[in-house]
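[agent] plan:
  1. take the single chain provided in the ticket
  2. run structure prediction with default settings
  3. attach structure tokens to the ticket
  4. add a short note for the reviewer (M.T.)
[agent] executing step 1
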Amino acid sequence: MGARFLVVVLVLGLGPWLTAAACAGGDGSVLPTAQPPSPTPSPTSAPSVVASAVAPSSATVGATVTPLESATASTSPSVLAPATPTPTAPAAATAPPATPTPVPPAPTPTPVPPSLPSAATVTGTAANRWSPGTVSVAAGGTVTWSWSVPVQPHDVTVSGLGSSGAPTKAGSFSLTFRAPGSYAFVCDVHPDMTGTVVVVG
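[agent] step 2 finished; step 3 output follows
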């Protein structure tokens, strides 16, 4: 066992020397160490920039650095107060459209008859006709019949009201009409010689 221990000690003690001798070569010269091939730079890769360390100047060694005031200023972020929203006035309510008031139709005016005369004249002709054949007067108006013919006499009779009397070649007759209505008149000598009086109240 003592011999084995001695061999181990020798191997451990001579190991570094044997390694150095193997690197130096048989003639004692140092064998060159194989360098790994330098990598080929990629055309697209940018060259690395190594910042050189700048040694501090001797004039500044040991100097006390006074911190700037701005360096000691508080760097706390400013807290902005939240903006107060401006109140918006509520939209005015739209008034409903006004309902038009129906306008009643204008009353139909009552036709006003033209003013009627208070007097009228009817003339008997030689052709055995009254002219005009119809006359209109206001209530209370008066109608006068007159004739003057050389050949045959005339007279006038108003239905229900009166007569001029016996036929004559020249004569006249007047009658006042109080009540509204239509009144027929005729010459008794000539039955076709007729006419009408219209009385409007």
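[agent] step 4 note for reviewer: The chain has a mean pLDDT of 74.
[agent] ticket updated
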